[in-house]
Amino acid sequence: MTPITTTAELAAFCDKIKSQPFVAVDTEFMRETTYWPKLCLIQAAAPSAEACIDPLSEDLDLEPFLEIMRDERVLKVFHAARQDVEIFNNLQAMPKPLFDTQVAGMAAGYGEQIAYDALVRQMLKIELDKSSRFTDWARRPLSDNQLTYALADVTHLAALYPLLRERLEREGRIGWVTDEMADLTSPANYDVEPENAWKRLRPRRHTAKYLAVYKAVAAWRERTAQSRDQPRGRILKDEAIDEIATQGPTDADGLDRLRSVPKGFSGSRFGPDLIAAIREALRDPEAYAPVIEKSRMPASPAAGAVVELLKVLLKARAEEAGVASKLIATVSDLELIANDDEADVGALKGWRREAFGEDALKLKRGELALVLDGARVRVVEVRRAPKAAAAAAS
Question: Are residues 179 and 246 in the same domain?
Answer without folding.
Answer: no
